[in-house]
Amino acid sequence: MNKLLGYGWYLVGTQLYFLLVRLIAPFNNRAKLLVKAQTQAWKLIENIPNRATDFTIWFHVSSLGEFEQGKPLMIALKKAKPDCKIIVSFFSPSGFLAKQKDPSADHIVYLPFESKKNAQRWVQSIQPKLAVWVKYDFWHNYLFEINKRQIPVFLIAAQFRPTQIYFKKWALFQRSTLQLFTHIFCQNLRSQNLLNQFQLTQNSLSGDNRYDRVKDYALNLENIPFIEAFKENTCTLILGSSYIQEERLLAQFLATSTVHCKAIIAPHFTDETRITEIEKNFKNTAIRYSQVSDQTVWKNYRVLIIDSIGLLARLYRYGDLAFVGGGFWENGLHNTLEPCAFGMPIAFGPKLRRFPEAQELVSIGVAQVIGKQVDFDQWVTTHVLDKKMREEKAIACRQFVSENAGATQRVMDIIGPYLNK
Fold this sequence. Notes:
CATH superfamily of the largest domain: 3-Deoxy-D-manno-octulosonic-acid transferase, N-terminal domain
Number of strands: 14
Structural class: alpha/beta
Number of domains: 2
Strand content: 5-15%
CATH topology of the largest domain: Rossmann fold
Number of helices: 18
Helix content: 40-55%
Shape: globular
CATH architecture of the largest domain: 3-Layer(aba) Sandwich
Distance between the termini: 38 Å
Radius of gyration: 22 Å
Mean pLDDT: 94
């Protein structure tokens, strides 16, 4: 397939996607949030002062996880060039809402839907001196417009697989999108070798910036006093970024096991429908974060439900073991490195093909794959009763994070010289 035809199909596909989002918005809360975000996109960017004169660095992230992955680099760039202004664009409303006041960026905005017209207007509006994409979410028109204006654009934390469309023999247009990057920083050797195989040689092996982020985060967190009151020195399981499947495993365990522990549930979605769904599984033994007060009698509750976004990373410091959600779906597993940085046994569902760091955690013996209820029951019981095992795995987790840190400095070694051009 030639590039022109591939571009045509790309335009049709993206516009059909955005049309579908608008059509289902009245019936789907997440689509509704995305459409609402688009109505604010241009207003947010036009309210930024001095766009034409500032040394602006534009980061694009899809959602919350990619923001956290890029954050160490934002901090490093600010340290290297204090007068620069960092603009972060989100595609996901949930990520934007969680991080809209994060001090690592000067301005946090939404990215307008992909189109040639929007890309031209966007780049003209913010006039970046360089741009950074984090991991994926490659919008061709935006990348093309940056490249056309000879603005350096970097891809960090890149992770590729042979099954992706970019590496099909006929996918000339899709590969041309990757050619628009000035430099691609790969998380692993497999990704780098794959790029080289297709003559995408403007790359280097940097590792994963998330190790730097979680290592730093684990050392610099504020206390959440009422969590200590909830724990009451009891072994506590953190259920992070959970879905209904993981919550049902926990509910069944608490209902049938004689082993005493407590649990904190931080679901991936926190809308009222989801929170109500969780409460039904735990009946009178759960309390919402929003309902906590000085008068809360903690002995009445075994489960704390976090009905707010942005708290999960801070909660892991109070965990004795963690079950990370999303692993029962292909490409669904959430951040396993955050609990790892705080040091604790980890578990997740069986879909790990696209998550090499989770596979490594299993291989070094600190994480376990859970496929069914009996696996979950045995994992929780073993670790609640064996404190020594928990402590040994905690040490191994922290060592794993420490050994894999350093990606941010490797990226800065190449991006740094562009700050003075």
